[in-house]
Design brief:
This protein is α/β, with parallel strands linked by helices and about 650 residues long. The protein has three domains: about 280 residues, TIM Barrel; about 100 residues; about 150 residues, Aldehyde Dehydrogenase, Chain A, domain 1 (3-Layer(aba) Sandwich), CATH 3.40.605.10. The protein contains 25 helices and eleven strands. Helix 2 packs across helix 16, helix 6 packs antiparallel against helix 7 and helix 23 packs antiparallel against helix 25. The C terminus is likely disordered.
């Protein structure tokens, strides 16, 4: 599929230098004193309104009460993450016993007056008493309670996790969701999201497509006659293809691209806005290739994209969207980002040069505001949609927007209601609810992301209800924090330094970054060619016969191998014996350096090895790269282990077998 209107694809640098980015962001962050004063006043009003609301409680109270900095918070998240997918009762009972035991529920002191949080503490404390009872001479009754009570606890805790999830989900079906939305009044706009992502089979992709298509029909019928921006649907592209990854780009554009085009057409015909949700950074360029194709089918319909401010490429992405928006109506949902933990670990595991996301929250917050400025300046070409539950961020956006409309706020269903009720009492702005729809089976991934991003004790949601946190502390600007600490977290190792000080990590490639992928493919192409393999011995090469070697892919002759004879093998053994004493007598540091030198040479010549692995072994590009990296890691690992284990005092004799590296 060609890109819409022949436009250039998005190909921004993968990971910029945090310090350089910070210098630019900080320089542009501060507003005039009068504007900052108005922001502070508005934010104070909003925070006060949140803290003075009725304490009936909800998910925000629970996240505040059990933040991820507490043992109870971690146990609660693990319960939520696992209980929805543990199929058998015995495993569930053991899991509950383990996780309930990790918290001190019975002695947990409530920090607030939330009915929901209070009920949770009471229930979990009771569960801990039941599953934690120990058989003692006087504990027969407790033992009986345990035998009778565990199944009941299992049912109760599973139900509690469903209640926890229901705070985030507006309905199990689109019909339920629309009914609940109508009951919440007309002050909110909605963007419905059918839960379910990461299709594993074509059947999964078809099922997700059908769910989206049916939702578009239902939402469109319910919204008939209303504003064309009042209702929308969000689509995750990973739900439309079982291999939504850069390495499968042709089939993704063909199959998932066709499904997306059909959904765009249906949404356009029903007068709905369709927003493509953001996913992991390695899927961004592929997502934009599909988004660009979908632009051709919008034809007056409203099409949108989510942009993640924790990605270093976010400002460049907004510029690209502005270029593509000529004559079209593009909605841009600006979010902080929900895959941070995954992005960090993937970059480290893949041995990348840097992270695609910031490693400090202050940098994400600052980049978010830079994107806000950019989006507001691009009205009405773009419709900015600012997703946030932070009162300071809301106040800052209202100040920067002036009295000119053409933008909206967004909040997650089940969160931020008190904040935005206070906003609507003072400001004439639009607020849209991001409303997930689905059953508990599809809730898992979404629920865990919400708990992770809002359960950290550094998040505004966790801090705003904490009476020990002053309003002044909540009003500290991210640029002020960056003047106190470096832009890059020193506690998070760069991918190359993941195993330091023991050894360097092997160098990998991000296939989701087109420039890096093409560079690797050029390396592999340059390493291809006819190969002649032969024994390496002290004297001449092997004297056996020569055999052609064919690739398992197509059967083409890729080289030839000269076979060794018995005499060749004996000569090789004699040569090895001759050099055995010399090698064993060498210092450990010298032998370790030889291994490190071998690792460096393998890494430098990886294109040649990848070409051989693909031609002779029929390996895919990602498997071939992984095998080369494994060889590099092995050499560096054993070099480091040798130096650590064999100190001069412990070294065996010069021919000791333990020293044979």
């Amino acid at each position: 599929m060609a890109l819409a209107d022949g436009g250039a694809p998005f190909r921004a640098p993968w990971g910029g230098n945090d310090d350089v980015i910070a210098e630019d962001l900080v320089a542009r962050a501060t507003l005039p004193h009068e504007a900052e004063t108005r922001i502070d006043a508005r934010a104070r009003t909003l925070i006060t309104a949140i803290r003075q609301r009725s304490r009936i409680g909800g998910i925000e109270d629970l996240l505040h009460e059990f933040s991820l900095s507490t043992a109870e918070g971690v146990a609660l998240m693990m319960l939520a993450e696992a209980l929805l997918r543990i199929p058998d009762d015995r495993t569930a009972d053991l899991f509950i016993e383990d996780k309930i035991g990790q918290g001190d529920w019975a002695h947990h002191v409530l920090r607030g007056e939330s009915l929901v949080a209070g009920a949770s503490v009471w229930a979990l404390a009771l569960a801990q008493r039941i599953v934690g009872a120990q058989d003692t001479p006087g504990g027969s009754l407790a033992a009986l309670v345990r035998r009778i009570g565990v199944p009941a606890v299992r049912i109760a805790v599973r139900q509690a996790m469903r209640v926890l999830g229901s705070h985030f989900v507006i309905g199990e079906t689109i019909g339920d969701a629309l009914s609940r939305a109508r009951g919440e009044g007309r002050r909110w706009r909605y963007s419905f999201d059918m839960l379910g992502e990461g299709a594993r089979t074509e059947a999964d992709a078809d099922r997700h497509f059908d769910a989206y298509a049916q939702a578009i029909e239902a939402i469109g019928d319910a919204a008939a006659g209303s504003s064309d921006v009042s209702s929308a649907i969000s689509v995750k592209l990973s739900a439309l293809h079982p291999r939504f990854e850069a390495i499968s780009r042709p089939s993704v554009l063909r199959d998932a691209g066709g499904r997306l085009i059909e959904l765009v057409r249906r949404a356009r015909d029903k007068g709905l806005a369709l927003t493509v949700d953001a996913e992991e950074a390695d899927r961004l360029e592929l997502t934009l290739d599909m988004f660009d194709v979908a632009l051709r089918e919008a034809k007056g319909g409203a099409l949108g994209l989510a942009v993640q401010a924790y990605q270093k490429r976010a400002p460049a992405l907004i510029d690209w969207l502005a270029e593509r928006a000529a004559g079209k109506r593009l909605h841009v949902r600006l979010v902080k980002g929900a895959y941070w933990d995954t992005e960090i670990k993937r970059a480290q595991e893949r041995g990348l040069d840097d992270f695609p996301v910031f490693t400090r929250k202050a940098m994400t917050d600052l980049n978010y505001m830079a994107c806000v400025e950019k989006l507001l300046s691009l009205r009405p070409k773009l419709l900015p949609q600012f997703a946030t539950h932070n009162a300071l961020t809301v106040a800052s956006i209202i100040e920067r927007a002036g009295r000119v409309g053409g933008y909206e706020f967004q909040r997650l269903h089940g969160m931020g209601e008190d904040l935005y009720r206070a906003v609507l009492e003072e400001e004439d702005v639009a607020v849209r609810i991001y409303a997930p729809v689905g059953t508990h089976r599809d809730l898992l991934a979404y629920l865990v992301r919400r708990l992770l991003e809002n359960g950290a004790n550094s998040s505004f949601v966790a801090r705003v209800l904490d009476p020990s946190t002053s309003i002044d502390d909540l009003l500290i600007r991210p640029e002020a924090l960056l003047r106190q600490k470096p832009a890059r977290s020193r506690r998070i190792a760069l991918p190359a330094h993941l195993f330091m000080p023991e050894r360097m990590n092997s160098c990998g490639v991000e296939f989701g970054h087109e420039a890096s992928l093409q560079a690797l493919m050029r390396e592999a192409a340059g390493g291809a060619g006819f190969v002649r393999a032969m024994p390496l011995m002290h004297a001449a090469a092997g004297s056996g016969g020569v055999e052609a070697r064919r690739s398992p892919i197509g059967g083409a002759v890729i080289g030839e191998a000269q076979l060794a004879t018995r005499e060749d093998a004996e000569m090789a053994m004699a040569a090895a014996s001759e050099y055995a004493f010399e090698w064993s007598s060498a210092p450990i540091s010298s032998r370790a350096n030889i291994l490190r030198r071998a690792a460096d040479l393998i890494e430098t010549r990886r294109g040649r090895f990848i070409a051989l692995l693909q031609a002779e072994g029929g390996k895919t590009l990602d498997d071939a790269l992984a095998e080369v990296r494994e060889a590099v890691d092995y050499c560096r690992y054993y070099a480091a282990q040798a130096e650590q284990l064999f100190t001069p005092q412990r070294m065996p004799g010069p021919v000791g077998k333990r020293m044979s590296l």
